[in-house]
Amino acid sequence: MPPEAAMDFSAAPAPELAAKVQLLNDRYRHHGATSVLEAALKDPDAGELTLVSSFGAESVALLHLVSVIDRSVPVLFIDTEMLFPETLVYQQELSERLGLKDLRIIKAAEMDLAKEDPDGTLHQFDTDSCCDLRKTRPLQKALSQFDGWITGRKRFQSSTRAALQFFEADGIDRIKVNPLAHWHPEDVRNYMEENRLPKHPLVARGYPSIGCAPCTSPVAPGEDPRAGRWRGENKTECGIHVVDGKIVRNGGNA
Description:
It is an enzyme of class 1 (oxidoreductase). It is a single chain. The protein has helices at 15-28, 33-42, 59-69, 85-98, 110-116, 127-143, 185-194; strands at 49-52, 75-78, 103-106, 148-150, 167-170, 174-177, 242-243, 246-247. The chain is of the alpha/beta class. It has one domain: Rossmann fold (3-Layer(aba) Sandwich). A six-stranded mixed β-sheet has the order 3-2-1-4-6-5. Strands 7-8 form a two-stranded antiparallel sheet. The longest helix is centred in the middle third of the chain and has 17 residues, at 127-143. It is globular, with a radius of gyration of 17 Å. It starts with 14 loop residues before the first helix and ends in a 7-residue tail after the last strand.
């Protein structure tokens, strides 16, 4: 199945959704990350939200923020079944430490895996289709019961995120909340240190950005933090994010 064959991301957000996103950004434009998150979880204009987390290199900061505000917020974790063993252990230990009460582990449908990637080698010749199968579709299905989702995306991470706002439209009918949009690398480090939060074990081994094991490699000093993701390909995003109706997969294009 070609990527996104079952989903149409080309439609513009519904006018009422675009207006709601603008209203929320105007309302909380001068707020900090904590107050934006607190407000989003209570504001009826934001609706019912879930946090989507990779439990990667910087995930603990946002997970901790949410746990302090409301540990019952649903947390979605996409297990592609190709993750590093260290990520799976970190996810379990961190969930227990933070007292997350509603962790939901989502995976690709067994029928889809058997049909599209029966031998687990799809990533070797079509990384976009592999990400679609193991990440995009399972996430879209899980998100269908929510009005929006909370992400840890930040402006400094890539050119496609340089103008990121606290609130944005996700497709035609969902909201995306980015409470850490204006944080810098040092903000993440300081928050983790001040709250004595455990780092992902692979960070110390040269992995500043962590995805699936077959498609993630260590990063050398001076390289872009995401240089180890899909190394050698024109691809810097897995495709779970939609900007202007397009799946984002690289620094400048969908």
